[in-house]
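Annex B. Sample input.
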Amino acid sequence: MSYLDFHRESALARGRPSAAAKVTSTPRPFKEYATEVIKLPLPEPEGLPLEEAIRRRRSVRDYTAEPLTLEQLGRLLYHAVGITGKKEYKRSAPSAGGLTPIEVYVVANRVAGLDSGLYHYDPLHHRLHVLKKADLRARIAAACLDQDFLAQAGVVLVLTAVHIRTVWKYGERGYRYVLLDAGHVAENIQLEATALGLGACAVGAFFDDELNELLGVNLEEEFALLAVAVGHRLASGGKIR
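Annex B, continued. Sample output.
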């Protein structure tokens, strides 16, 4: 099936609703790991005005060796998918039906006070689940078509989709919504990075099997959609688009 075929098959028409997936109960909107956890600092209301962050945002692909702080990482994650309202767990990024299918994994290359490795963000408690302590710079760059700037970044935030959270209600149409949700989250990350004086670049080019294997996700339930590299941008020069 081509992408145009899928687009047509997932189109809505009067009298032909998209068939929703059959589930026995509403999927839980949070993923949990029984691993060591690291609490993140709560973000303070500071940074650039929104309009200025939008004007300054560029895709930055060259970074210095300066590590990110744990506070900066916490701010990036909170403004990506954090809980901004306790009523029905409202999030910082919009989501179709409020179903929040996007999960965020952290490949930490250089973060002060945090071991290099793989982490999962728990928005319910604003903390990290420790998944693997290891230097993953070579693997994340290789998985993303050997783009070395992902190894240079302080962190790479990988967005995945737990698709059943959306398609149980919206059927095939839900896959479109999942992709849109990932875009909302990625834009929040890039604007927050800009507000913090950092550089960021979203990457959709990756070897799916390699990136999913790095994350250790069950492909029947979850898969990678997008990666966002974040780091301290070079003062001058470098690749900015």
